Amino acid sequence: MPEIARRDVLKGMVATGAGAALPLSLSVPRSAAPAAPVPEVALRWLEDRPALPTGSTWGTPWPKGVVPKEQSFALAAADGAAVPVQSWPLAYWPDGSLKWTAHAISDGVPAEGYTLRAGTPAAPAAPVTVKDAKNHVDVDTGVIRARIRKDGPDLIGQVWRGETEIARRGRLVNLRQDRIDDDEEGTTRRERYLSDVRKVTVEQPGPVRAVVRVEGRHQSKKGATWLPFTVRLYFYAGADSIRMMHTFVFDRDGRHDFIAGLGVRFSVPMRDEQYDRHVRFVGDGHGMLAEAVKGITGLRRDPGAAVRAAQVAGTRLPAISTWDTRVSGRVGLIPAWGDHTLSQLTSGGFSIKKRTAKGFGWVDVDQGRQASGFGYAGGVSGGLAFGLRDFWQRHPAQLDIRGAASDEAEVTVWMWSPEAGPMDTRFYHDGMGQDTYPEQLQGLEITYEDYEPGFGTPYGVARTSELTFWALGATPDAARLAAMADAVRVPPQVVNPVGHLVAAKVFGGLFSPVDRSSPAATAVEDHLDFLFSFYRAQVEQRHWYGFWNHGDIMHTFDTDRRVWRYDVGGYAWDNSELSPDLWLWYAFLRSGRADVYRFAEAMTRHTGEVDVYHLGPWAGLGTRHNVQHWGCSAKQQRISTAAYRRIFYYLTADERAGDLMRALVDSDRTFMALDPLRKIRTEPYTPDPEALAIGLGTDWSGLAAAWLTEWERGGDPVAERKLKATMRTIAAMPNGFVTGEGLYSLTTGEFAPAAKKVAVSHLSAMFGEVEICAELIDLVDMPEFERAWLQYCRLFNGTAAEQTAETGAAFGNLILRQGHSRLTAYAAVRLGRDDLAARAWREFYTGDGYAPDLPWRAEKVGTTLNPTDEAAWVSTNTTALYGLAAIQNLALVGGKITPPFPWSPTRSEAGSAARSGRPSGSPPR
Predict the structure, then answer these.
(1) d(C-alpha 923, C-alpha 282), whole Å
(2) DSSP codes joined into one string, 342-393
(3) Which Pfam families does the entry mention (predicted)?
(4) Residue 199 is assigned to a structural domain of this protein
């Protein structure tokens, strides 16, 4: 059979972006007649109703077989008024009915809530329009117009509000240096690179929301290029803002080329008199620096109360002829402060300084803790407001205004501050002589770090940042500035009610609403609340912030130093080990809590970009936990898995998350580049495209998540075939999932027939396989696959006798039994067995995770560098699995919950792992 070429199969289909209406291929049946009326969905804002008119985009799920694929949708505000809405499909059920739809609302005054229903959408009074010309794309929101260039350094050539040009030459700027000075005497030169646009694609043309994707690289004056980028520009009908999602990929080995600055820059025409020009920075909360370029307050002579009041308010000053002549005659002698800088070099402190012009001394203005990342430069006839989300959380960041006293100011939003020094991407040690696999395995035994020369490289990692720019007709007042700063900090998000998410039976149906219907359930809920609150506090107290770090958490605590093991090999950054991403997202799905959502969102942004390779031979693989996010030599599917991005994508229709999952569809080819078990194989093995050794746990679950997502998003026939072929051939193995590993063909997408053997790892199902299998069993009518999965679910925590009787051998002394209790619960429901339900709760209470009799509280500690809350018994591996087991057990067998059993581990070693800090994420041996 010829090799399946996915790209050839899709050739000729309409080219669309991740957020565009995806084509429904012939492999997905036409939508069946709906079996029930399309339900109405009462939507709400994640946080409070935003104070600022804003556009928002979200996803809504639908029960299987209910909503035909051609369905249109209408939206109404809480008072019944029709709200313009733009809708498009995100995913389909196998019968062709809609599974997820995306919806966007424009920049009108936000309502308290909305109702989404089947119907004809209201059209916006002034729709956003897109004109795709030969050399540029013009977008008109009805309030502002933007010209997007198709080549050259400018992403956005010009922005107008009405007939007034507000900004021009919107481009990316990067400072590069070729080495880091480790001595006191620095001699390194910096070279400036600008964006070089290579491709522009209109992904959505309106009428409510338009999306334009810009791709390119950074280029120097000499023509050298690096740092490929993808920028998406979002426009909403009636809006005066442009939302920018900026992604760059680091395409160096981390040893020779260093980022010394990375930003977005606009030029802003300055038409007003210098005393009618204003600079604004919003710091902590709504506190702000509000100054004029040429100040006329505080002078020795008073120009007049009305003049001073107007300048403070940011409105046009009275005619200069009305001023006190002692001031008006000497205006030229008042300094004009043309340059301003706000730099946030740590998560706990920012500073502001200003100067009159380049070549003159800086004057310190003030300092604060955590700036909003929002500023404004302009005058009474218009200006540009700008903001960078997670400004202090992703320090070092910086806002620059230059030349505000001249005819054209320059505004730069720095995602990496030039004042911070170069981004150090070098590996953190010299290898310590670990040149061979045996030596590297010894290193794993002592520091838990899986080191291998050349593998601790950042080549191919990425980072996505979110920026917003407003083209304003005048200097905003304090209330609007505060509202814009809030929108930068926490972009308003529309969400579905928990009840609708549960009723739609998406994500495997493995969650139910928060349950406090019994003392036993209440105790579990209290424990879940404690764990989330504890980690949220640890992020702040331990300062888990920084450009590359924000969104991740630490792996294991050091009870002697009373710090997390930030500097001990594989115990440092967690990098999704044992699925904290899924714990957080399932916690949100069942609770609707905004704080949980924002925590999960930050983690998804981090783990999908920083912990995964997007270029090079390991593209599509993620990196196991380490002191540096890219430091471990274990590059595997278990970290890059689409299972960790799916929930965020479907809740938000986020195009970048869609890109990340689509990039994984062909990642079965990565097994040709790298054998994940190369260090521990006992027999010779050379990757063969017709017989690739692929684990049926962490490897296959990652592949299956990508194939499932691509299939349901657009009916990709190759993804569907690979998915179903692997399901069928796993089920055909005599021991199914218990076999552990299979030989996979890139040509057929099938596993070869396997002998009856037993190879079970405690890790196999703990990286999204539970969740993906639950979805697949619900989607695909393949009883043999369900039997194979239920066998694994029943037997993992079963007795040695039960395991031997069915498979021919016992599984050994396995750990993570508490986390696996949810597999037992799933089998209990599918098989209708109360004995398994009771066993699931027994395993949950008496497994090797968190026991009911633990303190379940943190203690205040004042002897560490900063005062902290300490719960030395908490580890992230156990937390993630406890959280998922608790949530899914309550959803599956919550009606059969029992009071806690006395702590009594089910195996001699069980419990010691969690209490002693023994690793539970080591590569299987």
Answers:
(1) 48
(2) EEEEETTEEEEEEESSTTS--EEEEEES---SEEEEEETTEEEEEEETTTTT
(3) PcRGLX_1st, PcRGLX_2nd, PcRGLX_3rd
(4) yes
Neighbours of 646 (CB within 10 A): 28
Query: Global pTM?
Result: 0.95
> Containing domain of residue 444, as a range?
427-462+548-640
Picking from 268, 295, 323, the residue at the C-terminal end of a domain is 268
Q: Is residue 743 part of a domain?
A: no
Tokens coding 712: 């349901």
Beta strands in 184-307 (DSSP E): 191-205, 209-220, 225-236, 241-249, 258-269, 277-282, 288-292
Provide the domain count of the chain: 2
Given its phi and psi angles, is residue 460 left (phi above 0), alpha (psi -120 to 50 degrees) or beta? left
CA distances from 129 to 207, 231, 254 (A): 6, 19, 43
- Give pairs for 799-807: CB < 8 Å, separation 24+: 803/758, 807/735, 807/738, 807/756, 807/758
Residue 764 inside a domain? The answer is: no
Instruction: Judge whether 57 and 103 are in contact, CB under 8 Å.
Output: yes
Cβ atoms of 63 and 503 closer than 8 Å: yes
pLDDT along the chain (925 residues), means of 10: 38 36 38 71 96 93 97 96 97 97 92 97 96 98 98 98 97 96 86 98 98 98 98 97 98 96 98 98 97 97 97 97 96 98 98 98 98 98 98 98 98 98 97 97 97 98 98 97 98 98 97 97 98 98 98 98 98 98 98 98 98 97 98 97 98 98 97 95 94 98 98 94 98 98 97 97 98 98 98 98 98 97 98 98 94 96 97 98 98 96 47 42 43
Is 178 part of a structural domain of the chain? yes
Single residue among 247, 268, 289 that ends a domain in this structure: 268
